[in-house]
Every structure is written in C-alpha cells, then in structure tokens.
Amino acid sequence: MPNPAMDTPTTRLEEIEQGTSLGKDAWLRLKKNKLAMASLFIFVFIVLLCFIGPFFGVQHPTTTHLDAKSQPPSKDFLLGSEHLGRDILSRILYGGQVSLIVGFIATFVSLIIGVSYGAVAGYIGGRTDVIMMRIVDVLYALPFMLIVIILTASFSEALQDIEFLHAMKEKSIVFEPDLLLLFFAIGFVEWLTMARIVRSQIITLKKQEFVDAAVSLGLSHKRIIFRHLIPNVFGSIIVYTTLTVPSVMRLEAVLSFLGLGVKPPNSSWGSLIKEGADRMYSDPWLLVFPALFFSLTIFSLNFLGDGLRDALDPKTSKD
Amino acid sequence: MMPRIKAGLLLVITLALVSCGRESRVDWATRNKILMVGNGSEPKALDPHLVSSVGDSNILRALFEGLVTYHPTDDSKNAPGVAERWESNDDYTVWTFYFRDDAKWSNGDPVTPEDFLYAYERILSPDMASPYASMLYFLKNAKAFNEEKLSDFSQVGVKALDNRTLQCTLRQPTAFFPQVVKHGTWYPVHPPTIEKFGQNDAGLKPMTMQFTLWQRPGNHVSNGAFQLKSWQINKSVVVEPNPYYWDADIVKLKEIRFFPLPNEFTEERAYRDGQVHYTYTMPPNMIDWYRKNDPKHLRLDPYAGVYYYKCNLNVPPLDNVKVRQALAYAIDRKKIVENVTLGGQAPTYAFVPPIEGLYASPQLVKYDPDKARQLLAEAGYPGGKGFPRIDLLFNTQDTHRAIAETIQDMWKKELGITGIGLLNQEWKVYLSTLHDMRYEMARHAWIGDYVDPTTFLDMLRTGDSNNETGWSSPEYDQLLSDAALAPTAEARQKILQEAETIVMTELPFIPIYWYTRTTLVHPHIQNWEPLLLDNHPYKHVDLLAD
Amino acid sequence: MARFIISRFLQAILVLFSVLTITFFLTRLAPGNPFQEDKAIPKHILAKMDAYWGRDQPVMVQYGKQMWNFATLNFGPSFGNKGFTVNEVISMAFPVSFMIGLSGLLFALAIGIPIGILSAVKRNTGVDYSLMSFALVGICLPTFVIGPLLSIAMIKLGWLPALGWETPWVNWILPGLTLGLFYGAYFARLTRAGMLETLSQDYIRTARSKGVSETRVVLGHALKGGLVPVVGFVGPAVAALIGGSFVMESVFQLPGLGTHFIRAVTNRDTPLLLGCVATFGVLILITNFLSDILLAWLNPRHQSASDA
Fold first, then answer.
1. How far apart, in whole angstroms, are the C-alpha atoms of residue B404 and residue B424?
2. Which chain C positions have a beta carbon within 8 Å of B132's beta carbon?
3. Position B257 in a domain
C-alpha cells in the first residue's frame, strides 16, 4: 500500500538528488534481478570472447580455403566455413569487435545528442521548440544515402592517407579509417528519433507538480532538466538506447554495402547476417551463427536494460 | 483496426484453402503461351537509340528487327530480317541490303530504307547524344558526323538506292558487317511517330528529343515480331504479337512479360515460386544447389564476355610490366571459377573468348607461382617486400567482392604482397573513378556486341574511350588496321592473334575468366538454344507443358 | 486551432524548402555523372547529354529551375527512366508503398501495443519475459532476414505468392506482415517502457487507492500516458513505412517508392531524387504533425488533475 505522504514532490526531489546512494541502491537492486545479472554475465562473456578469443587459436578471419568452402560445422571449422572457405567463428569474433565498437560509440553519440536536444526542446517549448523540431524534420527528410556517398567519396581517401591510422590498423581493424566516418554518419541519423521520444516525454512531465516545485525552489533550468526531468524518463531512454544498438549494427551493414564502414575482406555482424540471409536456403549455418551471436548480445542488452530501468527507478522500491 | 485484421486473417485462410492444388503462375502462363522473363533492372527506355544495357536490348529485340536478325541456334550465323538478302563488293566496303516487300510497322506502314536512313541520322546526330552511337562508326564519315566535324548527313556512308534497297559504304573493309547490323543500335524507328511526339517549343529537331511520349504503350510503333502492350515502371513490360509482322505466322507466344528483378537472390526465389520461366542470372551459391537437386532447370551456356582487372599504367608499380606479369601469373584462375563463380566459366589465359571456327586466342598467361615470384623479384620486390600500397577497385556486388577477396589472398599467399587494399564503391562513384582513371587497379568486364574478335580487341586501341589504362602500342594499332585489309579469314586471324599476343605480354588487362550465362530456364521453354551472345530471337520460342 | 494549423503549414513549407535546397546541392557534391555507363561513353556525347538536360548551365540557374518546378509541383522528366516524368513515376509507386506501409503499420500496432501492455502489467513474470523475448526476436531479425524467411516458407507451403505484385490483392500480405513484425517489436518495447513509467505515477496510485478496477486503471488511465514514447517514435516510423522500403521492395519485388529513391541516388537522377525527397518530406511533416496532435491529446495532465 503506497503511502500518500511519501509522494510529495519534495521527498522525490531529495531522493533523486542523493546521487551516490541512489547508484549504490540501484546496484543492490540490480544484483537481486537474476535475469539482468545473467544478461550482464552473457554480455561480458561475448565482449571478452570477441576481443580476447582471437588470441586463442582461431583461424585467420580473411584466409581463404577454397577447397573447403561452404562447409557445415566440423572439427576444422567449429561453426562452419563460408563461400570462400573462411572460418565463420573467427569472422564472427573479429566482426564482433567492429560491431560492438560501432554499436556502442555510435549509440553513445546519438544518446548524448538526442537526449539533451530532445530535453531542451521539450522543456523550453515555444518558438525554440518549434525551430529545434523543424530542424529535426529537415534532417529526417534528407537523403541519408547521398550524404554517405559524399562522405565516403570526399573524405575516405583523405583519411586513408593518414599514416598514424594505417599503423594502428595493422594492430586492430577497429582503427580502420572509414570507421571514423561511420560513427559520424550513424550518429548523424540515430539521434533524431531519440530526441523526439525524449521531447514528447518531457513535455508531459514538465507540467507535473514536482517541476513547479523545483522551479519555486529556485533551481536552475539546467539542473531541472538534467537532475529532475531526464532521470524520470530514464525508462524510455534506456529502452530506446538498447533498441538503438541493433539498429546501428544493421545500419553499419547497409553502409558497408555502399562502401562505407567495414572494408572487405573484413567482416562485421551486420554484413555476416546480410550474407547469411542471402544464402539461407543453401547454407543455413551462414545465417544461424552470426544471427545467434547478434541476438544473444541484443537480448542480454535489452534484459540488462530492463533490469537497470527497474533498479534506477526511484519508485520501484516502494511498489 | 480489428475488423480489418479479421478480414485479413479470413482472407489468408480462404486463400490457403483455395491455393491448395491451384496451378502455379508459370503453369498458367504456359497454358496461355505467356513467356515470363526475369530481366535484370528496369529498362532505361524502349527507344533503340537511347539504351545500351543487356536487359534493355532483350526487350528491344522483341519489339524491333534490323536488316539482318539473330539466328535461333547459332549467333555466328545470320537470319534475314527486314532485308531478305544482302551482298557486298569484293573488298567488303560497300554492302547492299534488299528489303522484303512485306516488312511492316506495327501500325501497318511499310518499312522502307528511308526509315533506316532516318534512324541512322537520328542515332548519329550529336544532339541526340546516343550513348552507343559509336556502334555506327563502321559507316564512312559516321564518326565525323557524330563528333560535329561534319554537318551534312548525306556524306555519311549510307543511302537508299530505291524504295527497297539500302546501301552502306564503310570506312574500312568489314567482312562481318551483317553481324554488326544485327545489334540494337542499327534498328529502325518509325519516323512519323518520332516526329509527331518530338514536337517541342524549345526549337530542337523533333528527331533528337530524348524525352518524348512515343515510348508509351499506345504510341509506340515498332517493326519486330512483337509490339508494346504495357509498361509499368518497376513492375513489368508486356509485349504482344505484332499482327503486321512479315513472319507473324511462326510467332507462337501470345505475350512476353519482362519483369525487372535486379536482385539475383529475389529472382531465384521468384523462379522457385514459379513466377518466371527464365532468369536473367542466378546467385553462385544456388548453382551447386540446383546441380544437386534440380539439374534440369540449370543452364550454363558459354557467353562472349571476359572478366578482367585493369591496370593503370601511370601508377607505380603497375607501370612495370614485370609487376603486371607477376600479378597475372599468381592468380589460380581454375580455383576461382570452380569455387567462387561456380557457373562453369572458363579460366582464361588470354583476352578474347574463343569463337568457334572464327578465332582461337593465343594462350599465354599461365598459373605459375614460381615464375610470378621470380618476376616480382626481378621487378625489385622480392617476396613482396617494399611493394607499394595500391587499391583494387570494384563496384559493390557479392561476386566481385568474393573474387577480389580471393585474389587478394592469393597475392598475399603466393607473392607475399600485403599492401593490396580492396576498395568497393557504389556504382556511379566506381564509374567516375574508373573513367577518370583515378584508380590503380580495377575490375571490369566486356561483353561482345557482335561475333568477331575485334569487338574485344578494338577497345585497346590508342585513344579508345574504353582503353582507360594509359596503355598504348603503335605496333598493336597497326596490326588491327592491317587485319581489316587481310585478304583471307586465316590471314586476318593470324594478324589478330599477333595483336593479342602483344596485349597478353604487356598485360594492361589481367584476364580472369570468360563468362558463361548462368540462368534458370524452365523446361516448358522450347527452342531456347545456347547462344554465344545470348540474343534469342523470340519469334521461334514456344511454351509447351510437359 | 486554425492559427496553429496555419503556422504549422508555413513551417512545413520552410522545412520542405530547406530540404530540397540542401538535397539539390548535395547532388552537386556527389561524384559521378548520371549518364555515365559501364562501357565508357565518349566525352563529346556526355557533354551533349549534360547540355540536353541543362546540366551545363550555372548551378544557380539549375537550382532556380528546380525550385520553380517544385513550386509548380511539376518535377519534370526523370534522367533515369527516359519514358516518364517524375510525377508519373511517383504517382505509380506511391499507392503501392502506401498500401504496404499501412498494412505494416496496422500489423505493427495490432502486434506491438497489446504485447507491450500485457508485458508491463505482468512485469517481471514468465509472461513478460516470453512476450519480450518474442519482441526481441523481431528486433534481432531485420527485415532482410524475416522477408526472405517468409518468402521461402510460402514457396514451400504454396499458400500465397512468395513475391511479386502481379496479384496485389494477395501480394500485400507478406511484406505487410514482415514490416509489422519488425515495427511491432519496437512498439512492444516502447509501450512496455511507457506503461511502466505511467503505472508508477502518482495519479495511477491514486486511482488504485480509490479502488478503481485494475483493467480500468490500465486501459482507462495508464494507457494514454503509456503510449507517449510510442507516439514520439511513431511519426518518423510511419513516414518510413509509407515512404517505401528499398529492402522490402527488393526482397518481394514490389514497384514501390523505396526503389526509386535508391535508384535516384545511385543514378544521380536529381529530378527524381528531389521528387522522392519532397514526397518523403511531406510524409514526415504530416506524420510528425499528427503525432504531435496525438501527444497533446495523450498528455495525462488533465486526467491527473481530475483524479486528484
């Protein structure tokens, strides 16, 4: 039974303002959520597998074995081989490095931009909101593919010539110069929907009593937005963020088709799934295993996100 | 919302019940003599003077007929078209075509030599900017007229002797000229139609209007076995028999539907679902599947085309002939055709595909990794050490990528070269990189326009717009000119072989394989014989259920 | 209200104008000639083509012409499809995309919203986990996987044509379902998140404490607030659905807008591209406008006030 006395705006404000203890509380609550903890474990496992796994005797991801092409899983190829006889497992692991890094950096960029942009537009409202949201409309309607083509054609070669990146590329494909463009291109589109979602939530929230209370307490707008409003929409933000990760990874596959993103002969999860989807009828394992890794990651991220949402929700403990 | 879903579900269930035991789309089409053809991408135009792609010419071949037309079983033979017979003078520089009396347009008008004159003037008009006008450069002065160096069309080597005879005067002896005029660029157009729809306020000649409504169903007039019935963008082009066609009695099909199916994986599914009788191409991974499970549908026919890598000779180290030779000798082509392209392509050690009875290429380039390593060492890069970074350019497509990845790996394994990057570009970017010669090494392919080795060899002449390698050899140019004047076919073959030997020693192009046409052909289709140029005359095609 | 609509209309024109202007100049930046082909076209012919289509004129003149075309709603002939004007191309393709998109949206709403609500109500139970797993499958399997899967299944089962637009009255089902599963998964996740947020709001507790039945609390009070994040997502999503999807059209061989959009970009077909961008821009503006109105209507404030 909720206690009405606890629900006054001031109590809630104090709760939210106590950042450190909130974090500790959240962690304690998260630890109790078995599904979330299992997800966290699986996720960390996949990340470690992708980044450390390749050091433990998997085959080289770009070495072709034409006499052993398109083979189902066997002792030589644990997860089978693809149409040029390259080892699927090692292509998944190396591809995972690209996908995870792209997924996280691009999502992070779009999260930061999208949340602040949406929150500011929604909170200030009025003419500022109108201008900000029409800019979003313009960006939505621009032909993204054309922008990508221009980006690739005009900057790709310039980046290719930076010796530092080339030296680093030898160590890890993550330093592939084109990936930098990729972060930019993906970040460019992915924040738009996040901004719209956050804005719509803020608009409904800002009319509630606790905001009036915060204003009357003389808190700055910045503080109100970032300490009081945004934490209240963490739920949607977390959920949409966990949804952005897969869409970023998929977008990467589409972009590498246009010549941006991961360069052949390297792989990424998105491009492996795309190749597998085309060949699912003749060689199903080409789709199944990359899709399995991808799905496991997305599943664990989403359930972890749900757990985090529950744990961070200041109201949960009282329900 | 809910009623709609329910209705949808109901529909699904009803359909499920109804569809059990219902005949497939192709069975229905066969019964109605409708040929369903998967045809690559959406046609750019249905105007013979505006198109250049294979898919577009597949449609135009049904709609139009040239002076000479394609033979149903052998591309190196000629069948009479609008001309019932033709002859040349002794040195093959003047050709006379005698028209049949009953050649008619699809509106009943007779087809006359004047129509052809009009068409040739149209395609060669500089303002028409026809992409493939160069096919008519065989005619005397045609090039000058097209390049605006000559403004009087009557000086171009073509004239009507009377209302049943057309005479072509050529720039050089061409014994295979009837082969050339089969090509779509030599089709006639119906002058009154072009004039009628070409009227404009801009003061341009109606003939040279590129965008007019004449290509629409209802307006379109053609002289082939079929006429245009409908054209819906990205859906289908449908043609039906032309009642006025002179050979209409032998036309058995009631309709041909051309479907744009640019995605090969989708097209293969369309075939398996029984939606098309014939596919434009097919994905390599399904070739093996059909071999094992459904071999009677699979067709792998030789095709006059060559797949190769172009080298930009202005860029080191590719300016060094030994480097190019080393790269060429280190490619195991047999492995590539057997494992990557899979369609029974022929590994090529020469440039020009073999044309039976006409031309055999000198086989010079072998797979010889030891020699390749030695050549590379001689060029100054022993074991690939110090080899500069160069990019191998290709347009984004599965097979191109797979071949590039394989060859990159071969060069790495055999020669120790690690500095070859793969650069995939979107189509138009690729074209501009290629045609502006901003590439180092690039994938390219060439499909013959007519059955003769010169359709391949001519592109390496100095200054040809398709050379694009920076390679030039006066000796080679001279040999090609000599070949035209050779007294006998044997002598000509020898000279051309000599020319090809130069190419294969200097290797501005590194050939990979000769094409095959890998398609799915439904057993219902009759009279669909393997053809070197794959130009099937539809008037002989029939559909019979088994 | 009238003032609001007029102001939005004026904003819309400004947005379209900016979009078309930026797009026009982007097409000038992109490398590649629209008329160049695999077999190199001689330079003198390329120059003539550029002249014929007015591409040799000063950029600002071309820009002015395009804008005038836009103002008169006549985009002129397409570079790539020599037989048709841009207006014809779009008016042929739009109904197809609209039908597919609308069926996709209806499938998505029918699948996504109920799953999201049920999941939120049964939060952290087996029901929640299994429903959310189902939704996540939809998210993990992109349309280029679900599409061919359904299509191959239909080849085996023979219930429906696996692809094509020869028989539209049955051809819409598979692409609609594919899009519905995919977007439905997003709707489900967002609905669940929104519902959870709303269910813990004060006014819901108040309603519960007053003894309002759980069904009424959920559907009558919480749902409106719960749909807020969905509404933020739905505007652009609907525009994307109706604007045509290249992947769907390629997988199911549909003559829709998405293919033209991609072809216009890859062919550097400026008139067609501007036409597609304008169409898509109008769609975005309309759907975002509608979603803003929906948002105002969903705003739970007046409700909480009446309940308090």
1. 10
2. 39
3. no
In a domain, B132, yes or no: yes
| DSSP 8-class letter at C222 | I
The stretches of C122-269 forming alpha helices (DSSP H) are: 126-140, 143-157, 168-171, 173-199, 202-209, 214-215, 223-226, 228-242, 246-252, 257-267
User: For B282-299, what is each residue's pLDDT tens digit?
Assistant: 998 899 889 989 899 999
Which pLDDT tens digit goes with each residue over B105-118? 999 999 999 999 99
- Interchain proximity B466–C39, CB inside 8 Å: yes
Chain A residue numbers touching B286 (CB-CB < 8 A): 281-282
Domain presence at residue B510: yes
How close B266 gets to chain C, by Cα (Å)?
Answer: 6
What count of CB pairs under 8 Å joins A to C?
Answer: 173
What's the pLDDT tens digit per position in A51-105? 888 787 677 888 888 888 888 888 878 888 888 888 889 899 988 988 898 888 8
Identify whether the C-beta of residue B279 lies closer than 8 Å to the C-beta of residue B520: yes
Q: Domain range for residue B147?
A: 64-194
> For residue C141, which of B286, A291, B10, B171 has the smallest C-alpha distance?
A291
Contact B331, B510 (CB under 8 A): yes
Q: Which of C178, C180, C286, C190 is nearest to C236 (CA)?
A: C286
Judged by a CB distance cut-off of 8 A, whether residue A273 touches chain C is yes
Note whether C84 contacts B233, CB cutoff 8 Å. Answer: yes
What ipTM did this prediction achieve?
0.89
Tell me how far apart the alpha carbons of residues A255 and B425 are, in angstroms, rounded to a whole number. Answer: 11
Is the Cβ of A30 closer than 8 Å to some Cβ of chain C?
no
User: Given CB atoms, is C148 within the 8 Å cutoff of chain A?
Assistant: yes
Pick the CATH number of A37-54+86-316 from 1.10.3720.10, 3.40.50.670, 3.40.1360.10, 3.40.50.2300: 1.10.3720.10
Q: What is the DSSP string of A99-145?
A: HHHHHHHHHHHHHHHHHHHHHHHHHH-HHHHHHHHHHHHHHHHS-HH
pLDDT of A317 higher than 50: no
Is residue B21 scored above 80 in pLDDT?
no
